[in-house]
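Collaborator request, handled under Task 6.
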Amino acid sequence: ITPEGILTVERGDDDRGQSPQIIHPRCALRIGPKIVGCNGDNITITLLSDVDWIHGERARAAGDNPIYDPQIAKTQLKDVGLQSCENLVYKSNADLIISSSRGHSGEPGGLASWRLPLTESDPPEPVSLLSSKAVIQGVAGLAINNNRLFAVSLPNTLSIYDVDEDGNFETLSSTPIPDATALDSVLIEGDYAILSDAGGQQLFVMQASDPANVSLTASIKTLGVPRAMAALGDGIIAVAEGGAGIQLIDVSAPDKPVLSATYDTPGSATHLSAYQGYLGVADWDTVRLYDASQRGVLRLLDAANLQGMLQIHTFVEEDELERFGMTEVGSTRRQMHAANWVDLSENGFIVSEMDAVIMGRLRAGGRAPRINLHTLREKYVTLPHSFDAVVSNGGRKSLAVSWDTTNGISSPHESLIVAPGESWVARASINEITDQKAPTKATLLSNDPEFGEFHVQLMQQTATFDIGNSAADFSLGLINECTSGACTQTPRCVSNSDYSAKGMPVLLVFFASWSPFSGLELSDLFHQLRSQYAENKLTIMAVSWQESEESVFDFVTEHGIDELVLMDNGVNAENCGDPNPQTLYDTYFSSVGDPNNDFFFLLKI
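Structure tokens returned to the collaborator:
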């Protein structure tokens, strides 16, 4: 996996000097000389010539044109009455794209078709709207087969449209699947449409050759939360299942789908793409590449943190130190975060993550070890302090890792050997150094020939309370409460005392309804927790911070969340007589939390 260029929202401090461009890209397609992006609330067009090419034949020398300011044409979805871009497909026989939108904050989702600009002018021209179709519940996954568009409408409907060369939508059928709770994606395999149901953790196989007679053929439960799917050939499909990794499902007998194999990944598998015997997987903080040429078998070829490989640095100002886990002004190497889309093609690959789109090529001959560090920062209150860092080997040879112990860092093991494709925990301790400042980073050394060292940022906290102290009191508005699968959204107030008598731990999970990544994480997390802990063993509270009830209602319904949902917006707390003037979010993040990395707090009350 060789990354070569990047589009990013952040400003770098290297010689290229980047300026803000795109926010929260959901997916991106490379179509001829253009990159078409689905970015939160807009559709963008960028020319390949405007990408910041850092490696490869297109790379600019450091110091050349130091202010990197690409021209990006944006078209706002709200201008056509839609909200929250979710997915894109390309209808090549008409040179147009189709976008899906989930909707947000009471605004509708739906479909829109767009004509790509005919010229390659610089600055680029924006896409132009051809047709749009509002779907009140919102639309998630798309698949196109000639003129037929297959779309999953929330929460449980498969719709089939005919799309002509002018982008007009003709509804051929809409088929609800009663047992589905939160459909996410659709894949066409011969005469069948395969649907992933993130809410019910299952796949549905639908006979869809005749739009007027769509019917359920079979279903199969999944181990995790199924998201994207890809056809590997010979009746085998790959399914990205979040923290459960990748599942291979044999659908060669559509009425009897069976689990063929399961492959764990160190991150959270959110999207995948197959091309000519290869499978690319977006795994949250890395991208993984597999040889999928043998039926029902995956063989890891490479796994890499693409941002780390590009060696893009962000200059951190004083008011941003806590966000980046730093103690003094300076630069830090950016790492991949929330990779959520990957597309393999004859052009190489394109990947989107939290705030960047990265593209490059697959290069033959990689046989070295590849270090991937999955723990990027560690906070502590007092010294000495011990912590664990998760490291994985994405390469083809054994990886040797050890801590640099020259600056207040010690470790119980001199070195670790991590086999190809495996993960390991490297333990270290931060110690006091007489007459010296506490260390600001811990360095992990390795035999990776390209990246011999990675750093864990260390940050000392001055906490108002620490782990092990009594939990902060709170009283907040509860807007989602479920019993035996039936949920009510009648607001009422809850407080610590409502749960302290039950004698069980409480897990607070903070989320933002506007973030597409919150939905992915929460569905996956809650499914895994409930498979291990019944409701009488663990109370889970999903906490929305500074948002409207309407936005949170939409989010809860869309993602099929059946845990307690609290509103943490100050006004709600005041109405509930909360004695704490801070929001619950501020209370925890101002002391032990890391607002860039930690969203979960386990309370024993």
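The cover message to the collaborator said: "DSSP finds seven helices and 47 strands in the chain. Residues 535 and 563 are 9 Å apart (CA to CA). Please let us know whether this matches your experimental observations."
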